[in-house]
Amino acid sequence: MILHKGETLFLQGETGPLYHLRSGLLKIVRVHQDGSQILVNLIIPNEIIPHHSLISPNPYYGTAIALITCEVDVLPAATWYEELEDNPERYRAIALLLQDKLRMMQQRIDQVTEVTPAEKLRKLQAWFQAFISPATLTDVLTQDEIGQFLGLRRETINRLLRSQAGSK
Asked: What pTM was computed for the model?
């Protein structure tokens, strides 16, 4: 299946299949009762999501939205879980997938724990370039989302981006 920028793959609270992201980039947003949204995760190519449902089913934790054009394989839940039961060696493959995700999260923690806001932003921009070049970070995320992801205020992100533009 092809998803275009801004299209939704699944909604928070629903249940359904798992998905393999072949190409593109997805964001996972958590919607609160007041309607506000917070960016909680980014999904890169070759990930199978939702991560928390790789071994047993659970409702979707957030809403998945395409940041750029994505190619996605639908993995029917019943088939996925039956294959796990029939082939216990697949649990090792899932453990390796989750290990890779944890390592990526450690890299993101390194980005967020940088001392200066400017360095946090620079590292996030560099990480994104591997997936979205020639587009830029601000082509796919709002300043609010960048701030949420880095633990910074939108105003700080705006100031840093203006400073970068001025120094070029």
From this structure: 0.85
